[in-house]
Amino acid sequence: MLKLKYLFLGLTFLLIGCKSAQVSKKITKQLNSSFFNNQFTGVLIYNPKSNDTLFSFNADKYFTPASNTKIFTLYTGLQYLPEKIPAFKYTIKKDTLTVLGTGDPSFLHSYFKDSTALKMFKNYKNVTLIINNIKDEKYGPGWAWEDYDTYFSPERSSFPMYGNILTVDFEKDSLINPKILKNNVKFKKSNFNRAYCSNHFFYQPNNKKLKEIPMVMDSLLVTKLWNDLLPNKVTIKSNSIKKMEHTAYSIPSDSLYKRMMLESDNFLAEQILILTSSTLSDTLNSTTIRKEILKTQLKDLKQQPRWVDGSGLSRYNLFTPTSFVQVLTKLHSEIPKDRLFNFFPVGGKLGTLKNWYEGNPTPYIYAKSGTVGNNYSLSGYLITKSGKVLIFSFMNNHFTTKTNDVRKQMQTVFEFIRDNY
């Protein structure tokens, strides 16, 4: 009986080895095709249950990750933030409420519509709001200057309002939000949606799409926005050395992570890092939190990344496929599968992967994509037809072909793995 058991185990390992070799051979052949000749590609595919590397190619080389960076941001938020987002820190003295921003992006955001601050501020005669407790510049290092007026590049701040963007909704009779800026919006032929360093906005008369334009979040605008909400109640002041005694909380943290990942929302990603820094200090500094987690929870990374922002907008970011697989493995071991997969875009169904990697018939890819000019990467989880969960990172840099052509090549690889391993 014992001999039969060992024979069965031996045959099982042999079968697994044959499948691994078959998959490895297929991927190698694909990567050796002429399509990949003039680009830089790295792949790592890992089986966490058996602790086996199914395939590795340039896995320890550094790549421009684009929005794959948000995987590290997700991990950081999950490590430091509580179940609900810290909306702001505050202290009360008689009829005056003093508030210190934490970077919570949900306040009056078009999707979250959180009103925690508004409801609380109404209960006090005077509100002192401190917003200069942030060391981050409004834009991240290496961000393209010409993106200042684009929806995907709002300014970072300590007390965001309305997602730090102005919205023009043409389907609702050109409804402008926040309304107080209505007179700042003009019909004008312009190559930009907003004047540089100024809250004067432009849109084309024949443009019928929803327009989202970043605002300049200086103290003048914040004062104007609060005077519109609560006239003559909120005063903007410089940073206080006094320690805040309490913390108010807003939306569930998971809802913030999910929105960031599904929509690849750069603003939410940046603010999540700022938020996590608020758990270490009243001074907000995303650099501090990145350094802290890299020397603690992520000190075992085989290759330490060059990590400069939360969103991946910067081309200064450099990560390896191995680093992504290591962090994805940590997430897989620390978080229940249903909750974890709920954060990620789903192939053929949800988020940025809605039009790619469709399952047959059920979804098999749960992953974060990263796209910036001439670069496309995908890192996450692949479920095979045999029920195995594989962790992968497939990174492509410096190609001159169409991004969709790269996706097609990758999809061929993923489908083969799904069906044959």
Written overview of the protein:
The protein is an alpha+beta fold and 421 residues long. The chain folds into 2 domains: 21-65 and 319-420, Beta-lactamase (3-Layer(aba) Sandwich); 94-252, no CATH class. 31% of the residues lie in helices and 21% in strands. The protein has helices at 2-31, 69-80, 116-121, 219-229, 253-263, 266-277, 286-295, 321-334, 337-343, 403-420, and strands at 40-47, 52-57, 84-93, 96-101, 126-130, 165-169, 175-177, 185-187, 201-203, 211-214, 234-237, 246-252, 365-372, 375-383, 389-397. A 5-stranded antiparallel sheet has the order 2-1-15-14-13, sandwiched between helices. It has a 5-stranded mixed sheet with strand order 11-5-4-3-12. Strands 7-6-10 form a 3-stranded antiparallel sheet, with no helix packed on it. Strand 14 and strand 15 (389-397) form a beta hairpin. Helix 1 runs antiparallel to helix 10, helix 2 runs antiparallel to helix 5 (253-263) and helix 6 (266-277) crosses helix 7. It starts with a helix and ends with a helix.
- The radius of gyration computed from the alpha-carbon positions, rounded to a whole number of angstroms, is 24 Å
Strand ordering within the main sheet: 2-1-15-14-13
Order of helices and strands: HEEHEEHEEEEEEHEEHHHHHEEEH
Shape: globular
Structural class, by secondary structure, is alpha+beta
In angstroms, what separates the terminal alpha carbons? 29 Å
Counting DSSP E segments of at least 2 residues, the number of strands comes to 15
Which stretches are low in confidence, meaning pLDDT under 50 for 5 or more residues running?
A: none
Q: Give the tally of structural domains.
A: 2
Helix content: 25-40%
Main beta-sheet annotation? 5 strands, antiparallel
Distinct helical segment count: 10
